[in-house]
Amino acid sequence: MDIQENIVNKVASSGLVTLNLEEYFHKGERLVYDIKDNLFHGLILKEQDFRAFIKEHNWEQYQNKNIAIICSADAIVPTWAYMLLANRMKPFANEVVFGSLETLETVLYTKALAKININEFAGERVVIKGCADLEVPVSAYVEITALLTPVVKSIMYGEPCSTVPIYKRKD
Predict the structure, then answer these.
(1) Which superkingdom is the protein from (predicted)?
(2) What separation in angstroms does the CA of 12 have from each of 8, 94, 121, 124, 154?
């Protein structure tokens, strides 16, 4: 009897479906646009100067980029200024958000996960892969858990050979 005939891959035969959130990572470049560079003396946004900047700036440089708009200066910036930036960037950029790079990553993952056909996981035992080469934000794990819970049989976190139970439907 051949020894290989007795080797059984229990993970492969377990019926587990592995979901790797890295697969939903948007590969586009991430940029922070700090509106402080548009402030007069780092304190005040002058409407006339800002509108001139909006007209003259090369917006094409944001082509296919993911942009987080912030203000790192301790200044009061009118909401319309952020709106003008978003309006000019969006035709070129993949994504534009107000907030940090972390906020941007959350938005990118939320949009990517919203495109998943959750019904494909109906009744399945799902392992959400834990070890990643890319940094997946906690918000993505929370989002996918919320999306899957109504339809799956169970959710686990980790690797198929070593998981932490998260949810199990009561039948």
Answers:
(1) Bacteria
(2) 9, 38, 17, 14, 17
Strands 16-19 and 125-129: parallel
Mean per-residue pLDDT pooled into runs of 10, the chain (171 residues): 50 74 95 96 94 97 98 95 98 98 97 96 95 89 97 94 92 77
pLDDT of residue 8: 39
Return the exposure string of 74-111: e unless at least 16 CB atoms fall within 10 Å of the residue's CB, then b. eeebeeebbebbbebbeebbbbbbbeeeebbbbbbbee
pLDDT at 100: 97
Q: Where are the domains of the chain?
A: 3-26+106-168, 30-93
DSSP letter, residue 38: G
Phi first, then psi, for residue 61 (nearest 5°) are -65, -10
pLDDT value for 10: 43
Say if residue 171 is exposed, middle or buried (CB neighbours under 10 Å; 0-12, 13-18, 19+). exposed
Q: In what order do the strands lie in the sheet with 66-70?
A: 30-34, 66-70, 95-98
